[in-house]
Structure formats: structure tokens, C-alpha cells
Design brief:
The chain has helices at 3-11, 70-78, 99-103, 122-132, 137-150, 166-178, 196-213, 224-230, 248-255, 299-308, 321-337; strands at 19-35, 38-54, 59-63, 85-90, 106-110, 184-188, 216-220, 233-238, 241-246, 258-265, 279-284, 287-293, 311-317. α9 packs across α11 (321-337). The longest helix is centred in the middle third of the chain and has 18 residues, at 196-213. It is of the alpha/beta class. Keywords: Antibiotic resistance, ATP-binding, Nucleotide-binding, Transport.
Length: 338
């Protein structure tokens, strides 16, 4: 399934998606210095005629390389930016015209940009959120206690935000975004800076939030494990255009991506005799790298190597999403030329 086919089928579906974009564009005017006292104006199309629907309760991955237009899309969905063209609705609300009304229905975590007060302890930031959103006292206390426990922030409530690690602050921002029970949650790199255990906790928390409360989640991330473990649907944006909309397995097929199995043996040996389509791509002493299609399970390959070779350790590395998208983009460019 191609990106254009999938995207157009969703965009052409019945009206009433919880999040709706129809032909949305965002163009910026950029001034570039071309000489002494001279500047040239040019138009940069950050988002180019994007259309899609997200239904209430869906958890969707929205991915792409840096500069693809992900953050611009999120900013239009929150009302921070106004579209240059097209129609956009979130829960029936035009974000740019009714930003204050929409703010009570959405939560946002913007990656490296915190919504917390830098010099205040976490708890003071949450108290300010309590007042800003006019959250009923009982509901505020219940939500705060539940979120702090689930995200393991109990010992950090009296710590100023500036003293928190990136991972701790990310968890703190997630709590802040959810105190008022938003119907929609926008997440930008929610597991950045987290160790393996913390990532697992955050993912489990988001899964529970989506399942039990029906919160609609739009997730941007470079960590494909976030997408694999949380999202049934993924959308890929590149150069401002929606290139793919569908299942993650289909994305791997379109991009012909591969995962890498890194194998440490007891001693240096000739390249492992791997069953096709797996193949050895690199050997350094007792360590060997094997590539295999990303859409296939690693279990059969691991079982065979463990049975036939003196195995010490192994790990699976996920494909680089930017490489997958670059392959897709290159293929589309070639088709356009031909």
C-alpha cells in the first residue's frame, strides 16, 4: 500500500474524525541575506496539502526525519500556528480561532521544551496548572496522586525543574499535560532521555491511558519501539507531505527496511551460515552483524544461531527510520522522473 493511496483513502472517508485535516498547508516567508544591504524573500512550504483523520481513542504514530513538518503540524493542531490553507478541526473546534476553548481538551508534551516553571519545584508547577485549568480540587488530587505514582515522581515533587534530568523532566511534563483529563494528547519524543526501565513504564502508562480512558494520542518519535509497542497505525511525513498512512509492517515493506542482529560468539569464526533472506553484513573478531527484513520475527534466526554456534550474547537493533523514509522518498522521486 503506497502512502498516497492510504492517505487518500483515509482522507476521503466519512466525516466526523476526532482530528480532521483537509488539504492543510503551512507556508513561511524566509528572508535570506544575498549581499550588502540586500535580502531575498523565499517561501518555505513546511506542510504541503496534508489530509488525514484520527478517530476518537486512536493512538497514532506521526513520524519523519527532522524538518519534515511534524512539529509544524502539531502546532497547528494546538492553535499555536494558523494554517495557510485547508481545513483543520480537533473535536469539532478550529484550533486557531478557539485556542482557549481547545486548551481544556488537549494535553501537549513538546520534547525539549518544557511546560513546567524552570525555577519552581514540580509540585508548585502542578498547583499552578490546577488554578489555570480550574480543575476541581477532588479531581486534581485524584489525578495528581495517580499520575505521580504511575510515573514514579513521588521523590521529585519538591525538586526544582532545572535540577531534574531530561528523563525526569519528561515524566514531569507528561503529568502536567494530563492533570486536566484531556481528550487528546500530543506527544513529541516522550521517551527521550529515559533508561530502558523508565521507557517501559512510560509506554505501559500510555497504553493504559489509551485503553482505560480512551484518550486519543498522536505520538511523534524517532524510537520505532515506541511505535511498535503503542501504535497500530503510523503516518510518515517528509518534506511536508504525507507519504504513508497504515500499519508499521506495511511501512517496512514499502521502505524495504532491515533490522540488525548483533551476535557475540565465544571466539572468532567464519561468517554465520544464515538462512535467507538473513545475511551477514559485517564481521569483527567474535562479533558478527546479520541483517534481516524488519517485518520478520528475529526468533527463528536467534534459535538457529543459538543451536549451532557458541553464543555469548546478542541484541537486535531496529532500523533507522530516517533511512527507511529516505528509501521511500528516493523511490517516489524515481517513479516521478520515469
Amino acid at each position: 500500500m503506497s502512502g498516497s493511496e492510504s492517505g487518500s483513502s483515509r482522507a476521503g472517508g466519512p466525516e466526523g474524525g476526532f482530528i480532521e485535516l483537509d488539504g492543510v498547508e503551512k507556508v513561511f516567508e524566509v528572508r535570506k541575506k544575498t549581499g550588502f544591504m540586500k535580502r531575498e524573500r523565499r517561501r518555505v512550504r513546511a506542510v504541503d496539502s496534508i489530509s488525514f483523520r484520527v478517530e476518537r481513542g486512536e493512538m497514532v504514530g506521526y513520524i519523519g526525519p527532522n524538518g519534515a513538518g511534524k512539529s509544524t503540524t502539531i502546532k497547528m493542531l494546538t492553535g499555536i500556528l494558523t494554517p495557510s490553507a485547508g481545513r483543520l478541526r480537533v473535536a469539532g473546534i478550529d484550533p486557531s480561532r478557539e485556542r482557549t476553548r481547545l486548551a481544556h481538551r488537549i494535553g501537549v508534551v513538546f520534547g525539549q521544551r518544557t511546560t513546567l516553571w524552570w525555577d519552581l519545584p514540580l509540585l508548585d508547577s502542578y498547583r499552578l496548572m490546577h488554578r489555570m485549568y480550574r480543575i476541581p480540587d477532588a479531581r486534581y488530587r485524584e489525578n495528581l496522586d495517580r499520575l505521580v505514582e504511575l510515573l514514579d515522581l513521588g521523590d521529585l515533587l519538591d525538586v526544582p525543574v532545572r535540577q531534574l534530568s531530561l528523563g525526569q523532566r519528561m515524566r514531569g511534563d507528561i503529568v502536567a499535560a494530563l492533570l486536566h483529563d484531556p481528550e487528546v494528547l500530543y506527544l513529541d519524543e516522550p521517551t527521550i532521555g529515559l533508561d530502558v526501565i523508565s521507557k517501559s513504564k512510560v509506554r505501559e502508562f500510555l497504553r493504559e491511558l489509551n485503553t482505560e480512558r480512551g484518550t486519543t494520542v498522536l505520538l511523534t518519535t524517532h524510537d520505532l519501539q515506541d511505535i511498535e509497542q503503542l501504535c497500530r497505525r503510523v503516518m510518515v511525513i517528509d518534506h511536508g507531505r504525507l507519504m504513508y498512512d497504515g500499519a508499521l509492517a506495511g511501512l517496512h515493506e514499502v521502505g524495504e527496511s532491515e533490522r540488525t542482529l548483533v551476535v557475540d560468539l565465544e571466539r572468532e569464526l567464519p561468517p554465520i551460515d544464515a538462512p535467507a533472506p538473513a545475511r551477514v553484513v559485517r564481521v569483527e573478531g567474535p562479533r558478527q552483524w546479520l541483517a534481516f527484513p524488519a517485518g520478520e520475527s528475529a526468533a527463528p534466526l536467534v534459535a538457529r544461531i543459538a543451536a549451532e554456534y557458541p553464543l555469548v550474547d546478542l541484541s537486535v537493533r531496529e532500523p533507522d527510520i530516517e533511512a527507511v523514509i529516505a528509501t521511500m522518498y528516493g523511490e517516489q522521486a524515481e517513479r516521478a522522473i520515469s
